[in-house]
């Protein structure tokens, strides 16, 4: 890991600490609602969203929301201890599958020398919920490619039949 | 106007809302295009250009321009996906041949690409409001009758008469890859084994060729495929895991019906 990358990790980690500090003021705030607040300005569903910019910014999230990661090739890489105006900073990163999946800060200024963990540091946050079935008012169905035989039994064939009768 | 024909081993439906301005010829031309795509790209036909290229009987440079275009697009997605999308996989899978799996197999992109081209044909003919659904891959433009946006159901993997979510859009594309219809029809080219971990992946975006290929790649990647999709700037996605969880990229909610 080169120096500039390490510095950027430290800076980003300090930023995360700021976020964590703000969470402290509202105990019980779940990471999910924090994520929802970030996305609170979503446009109405009926309109296509504007083109996205670069990769969404990483957000702190609880371990339960991160996608499963394999542990086979997980390794921890220790960063240098860097003196700052506020004290020494040392950061470890956990790498798996070529990307950073965790950042730990065993050495931080003030009394925060505990491990700070954020999941999927390098990846955008994914959202999870339980699968539910719906019977909705729909125009068409997107699904895995059905065979002509499968089509005869599919929801799409019923919609198409309804359309032909119209 | 609503028409359904059986092609590509599945059903292709074309619904045109502003039917007053569409001639039957225009829709006939669409299905003629779909037939042409089958002649060029079907891995089930020995005489398709893609089969002949796969056997080394035809050079890409001598093939139809459409074939070169599709193969170039496929190669872009191969690089982007770290090999999880790979049209040359079949050439390495000779030990375990499957019907329809050719040495060169762009099936994971070509359907979406062909439907996207069909949408362009309708637009050129002055049609502004329509929906094309080719075996579950969907392109919409404009609005359906008396509605603000198209409502596209995402097939529930295990309940055939239900949907797992509803996507709303005016202009856009939705592609779904899954293992619940044609069992094991997606192989992870990196391992040669059937993909596992996800029951289905739905990709929403502006271009169906990209959505189709990304859905195929993400399905092959398994649960990591959702993280991969979250890093792509041009799409949003919803995955359903084998253990019945729904995983969405942050921007997917913008498309989701309330």
Can you characterise this structure?
The complex is a heterodimer of chains A (166) and B (258). Chain A is α+β, with helices and mostly antiparallel strands and 166 residues long. Chain A has one domain (3-162). Helix content of chain A is 28%, strand content 23%. Chain A contains four helices and six strands; from the N terminus they run ααββββββαα. Chain A has helices spanning 3-24, 31-38, 148-152, 155-165, and strands at residues 75-84, 87-96, 99-107, 118-119, 127-130, 140-142. In chain A, strands 1-2-3-4 form a four-stranded antiparallel beta sheet, with helices on one face. In chain A, β1 (75-84) and β2 (87-96) form a beta hairpin. The radius of gyration of chain A is 23 Å and the shape is rod-shaped. The termini of chain A are far apart. In chain B, α1 (24-41) runs antiparallel to α4 (107-124), α4 packs antiparallel against α5 (208-221) and α5 (208-221) runs antiparallel to α6. Chain B has 258 residues and is α+β, with helices and mostly antiparallel strands. The mean pLDDT of chain B is 90. In chain B, a hairpin with a 3-residue loop joins β11 (235-241) and β12 (245-248). Chain B contains six helices and twelve strands. Chain B has one domain (2-254): T-fold (Roll). In chain B, the strands form three sheets. In chain B, strands 1-2-3-4-7-10-11-12 form an eight-stranded antiparallel beta sheet. The interface between A and B is large, with 58 and 82 residues. β6 (140-142) of chain A pairs parallel with β5 (150-155) of chain B.
């Amino acid at each position: 890991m080169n120096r500039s990358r390490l510095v950027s990790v430290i800076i980003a980690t300090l930023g995360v600490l700021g976020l964590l500090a703000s969470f402290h003021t509202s105990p019980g705030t779940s990471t999910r609602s924090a994520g929802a607040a970030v996305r609170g300005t979503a446009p109405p569903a009926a309109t296509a969203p504007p083109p996205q910019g670069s990769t969404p910014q990483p957000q702190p999230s609880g371990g339960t929301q991160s996608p499963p990661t394999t542990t086979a090739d997980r390794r921890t890489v220790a960063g240098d201890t860097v003196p700052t105006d506020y004290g020494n900073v040392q950061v470890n990163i956990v790498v798996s599958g070529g990307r950073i999946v965790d950042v730990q800060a065993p050495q931080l200024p003030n009394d925060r020398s505990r491990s700070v963990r954020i999941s999927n540091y390098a990846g955008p946050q994914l959202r999870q919920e339980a699968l539910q079935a719906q019977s909705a008012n729909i125009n068409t169905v997107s699904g895995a490619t059905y065979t002509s035989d499968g089509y005869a039994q599919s929801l799409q064939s019923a919609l198409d039949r309804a359309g032909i009768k119209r | 106007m609503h028409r359904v024909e059986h092609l590509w081993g599945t059903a292709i439906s074309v619904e045109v809302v502003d039917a007053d301005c569409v001639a039957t010829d225009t829709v006939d031309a669409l299905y003629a295009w779909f037939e042409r795509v089958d002649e060029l790209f079907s891995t089930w036909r020995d005489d398709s250009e893609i089969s002949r290229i796969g056997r080394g009987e035809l050079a890409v440079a001598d093939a139809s321009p459409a074939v070169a275009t599709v193969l170039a697009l496929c190669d872009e997605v191969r690089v982007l996906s770290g090999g999880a999308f790979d049209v040359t996989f079949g050439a390495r899978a000779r030990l375990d041949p499957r019907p329809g799996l050719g040495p060169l197999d762009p099936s994971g992109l070509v359907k979406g690409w062909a439907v996207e081209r069909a949408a362009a044909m309708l637009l050129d003919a002055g049609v502004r409001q329509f929906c094309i659904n080719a075996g579950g891959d969907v392109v919409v433009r404009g609005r359906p009758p008396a509605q603000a946006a198209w409502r596209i159901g995402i097939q529930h993997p295990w309940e055939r008469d239900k949907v797992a979510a509803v996507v709303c859009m005016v202009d856009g594309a939705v592609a779904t890859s899954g293992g619940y219809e044609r069992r094991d029809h997606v192989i992870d080219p990196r391992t040669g084994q059937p993909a596992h971990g996800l029951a289905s992946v739905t990709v929403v975006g502006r271009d169906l060729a990209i959505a189709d290929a990304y859905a195929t790649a993400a399905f092959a990647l398994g649960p990591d495929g959702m993280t991969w999709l979250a890093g792509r700037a041009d799409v949003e996605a919803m995955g359903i895991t084998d253990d019945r969880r729904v995983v969405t990229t942050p921007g997917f909610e913008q498309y989701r019906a309330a």
